[in-house]
Fold:
Amino acid sequence: MSNTLDTPILFLIFNRPDTTMQVFSQIKKQKPKFLYLASDGGRDKREQCIVDDVRDYVLSHIDWDCEVIKLFRDHNLGCKLAVSDAITWFFDQEEYGIILEDDCLPSNSFFNFCQEGLRAFQDDETKYQIAGFNHLEEVRDVESDYFICPSFCSIWGWASWRRAWEKYHVSPSWDSRLENRKSNDERIIVKDHKKKIKAISNGFDTWDYQWDYAIFKNRGEIVYPKKSLVKNIGIGESGTHTKNTDDPLNRVCSHEMEKISFTSLKNNYSKDFYQYRLNEIKKTYFHNRVKRKLSKVFGYERV
Structure:
């Protein structure tokens, strides 16, 4: 186990000084040798002042020996392009690395988990991502430090390889061959992805639907920690897509792991975790069906 962080980090910052300071304090403890900083431009002069303050804070508090590479935008690109272009820029220069947004607060163990996971699965092209956030906080149906999940990525603190990100397209077209997948579970997931691809084509400003789609389309797998190593501290009014503070994910805490071991285990798939993520899709699908039916009923009543 390495005691130094040789793995490059991409830190995505913008207009939230409070969360940025907390996340940066954790990065600072690791003293990474290579730190990439990416920041979108402000949407107006007032916001640009905040963006500039955040950039200045991070740059002025790098007090260890490291190479700093910057991508600071002069104009606002929005969530979809600013984040996806920054990750592409990062992987154009690095074979692998860790990606942290300004509201994803990692534990100390997160960095080692990512670094060791990247090394362990570097040559396994079925693996697309090392995730830091565990939606259940802890899974109890596996004994190992990690488990594998087919599809269902997590972008709240993660790591990956250039070989995987090369499958990403920011404006993907729908692959109708996916509709031939046979299992009931996959059919539900296919419908969810098709709906999200349509939302992107209609202008929804996000970058992560495309990443999840790329992983599912290519039958990729994600390596998760047994316990969550990241807490999202940005859920609320300042969040881009996560504003509901009553969201159960807001209660997920981060943990430390005494030691991290990646070994070849036959049964390191978590059925509990997979079922939880699948049920979340089913609930959304069911609620949308009910809303459509109610809309039709009340629509007819108004005629």
